[in-house]
């Protein structure tokens, strides 16, 4: 029993560190730039918003934070059940179950509100862009906007 107690503090610290690291998700709004996008030239076009449709942007499923943290918590919890081989088996089962639950929690907590913006570019072309909504500020049909782009990445701003 003493060994389990001595593992609780480091395991808890690791889980909390992983959970806080998962909070640092990159923003998908039109006003947020990743470090790799800074000081890179972008093409600027102007357009009028034709229509806007609310969408849901799925959460992260590729991160290791939720699954890793869940596996640690499940493994530690499982190790307290049984003794000998039983403790090893419940640790493994707890880690697997915790990893699955943690990954699902990470996906649901990183899901965000988005908007599909259909634009009539000044050259007449129709273009659609999906981006995250910030502070419930949806674009509206008729808005005059800037469309910034580089390669296949576009962002809509005022």
UniProtKB/TrEMBL annotation:
<dbReference type="InterPro" id="IPR008816">
    <property type="entry name" value="Gly_zipper_2TM_dom"/>
</dbReference>
<feature type="signal peptide">
    <location>
        <begin position="1"/>
        <end position="24"/>
    </location>
</feature>
<dbReference type="GO" id="GO:0009279">
    <property type="term" value="C:cell outer membrane"/>
</dbReference>
<feature type="domain" description="Glycine zipper 2TM">
    <location>
        <begin position="66"/>
        <end position="106"/>
    </location>
</feature>
<keyword id="KW-0449">Lipoprotein</keyword>
<keyword id="KW-0564">Palmitate</keyword>
<protein>
    <submittedName>
        <fullName>Outer membrane lipoprotein SlyB</fullName>
    </submittedName>
</protein>
<keyword id="KW-0732">Signal</keyword>
<dbReference type="Pfam" id="PF05433">
    <property type="entry name" value="Rick_17kDa_Anti"/>
</dbReference>
<dbReference type="InterPro" id="IPR051407">
    <property type="entry name" value="Bact_OM_lipoprot/Surf_antigen"/>
</dbReference>
<keyword id="KW-0472">Membrane</keyword>
């Amino acid at each position: 029993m003493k060994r389990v107690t001595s593992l609780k503090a480091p395991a808890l610290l690791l889980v909390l560190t992983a959970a806080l690291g998962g909070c640092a998700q990159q923003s998908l709004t039109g006003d947020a730039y990743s470090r790799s996008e800074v000081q890179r030239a972008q093409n600027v076009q102007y357009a009028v918003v034709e229509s806007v449709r609310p969408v849901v942007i799925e959460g992260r499923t590729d991160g290791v934070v939720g699954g890793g943290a869940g596996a640690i918590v499940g493994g530690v919890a499982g190790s307290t059940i049984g003794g000998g081989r039983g403790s090893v088996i419940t640790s493994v089962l707890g880690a697997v179950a915790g990893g699955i639950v943690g990954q699902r929690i990470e996906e649901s907590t990183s899901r965000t509100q988005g908007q599909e913006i259909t634009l009539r570019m000044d050259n007449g072309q129709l273009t659609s862009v999906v981006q995250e909504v910030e502070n419930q500020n949806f674009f509206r049909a008729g808005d005059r906007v800037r469309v910034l782009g580089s390669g296949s990445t576009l962002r809509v701003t005022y």
